[in-house]
Amino acid sequence: MWDALGEICTRESRSLHDICRQVDRERTQSGLTAGVRVFILSYFRAAATEEGHAAASHGNSAKVPPDP
Questions:
Q1: Which long-range contacts (CB under 8 A, 24 or more apart) does 3-8 make?
Q2: Could you give the CA distance from residue 51 to residue 27 in angstroms, rounded to a whole number?
Q3: pLDDT category, 36, cuts 50, 70, 90?
Q4: Domain hosting residue 40, numbered range
Q5: pLDDT digits over 39-51, tens only?
Q6: Residues 19 and 5 sit within 8 Å (Cβ to Cβ)
Q7: Which among 48, 49, 43 has a CA at the least distance from the CA of 5?
Q8: Is residue 33 part of a domain?
Q9: What is the mean pLDDT of the chain?
Q10: Residue 62 in domain
Q11: Total domains, the chain
């Protein structure tokens, strides 16, 4: 979890404190730790979409062609 959160901080040029403060403000029912886990999962799920792959320059062009 901490490695993933550190990677997000690096990618977004934000501090750990800044991201945790954002999660704390935006969470509704869970504790902060659960909120951070949901944030991490949501972040990487968004990156796993076709649009997220394209933005990272490895979208459709990185798809493996189907077997013949």
A1: 4/40, 4/44, 5/36, 5/40, 8/40, 8/43
A2: 26
A3: very high
A4: 2-50
A5: 999 999 888 887 7
A6: yes
A7: 43
A8: yes
A9: 82
A10: no
A11: 1
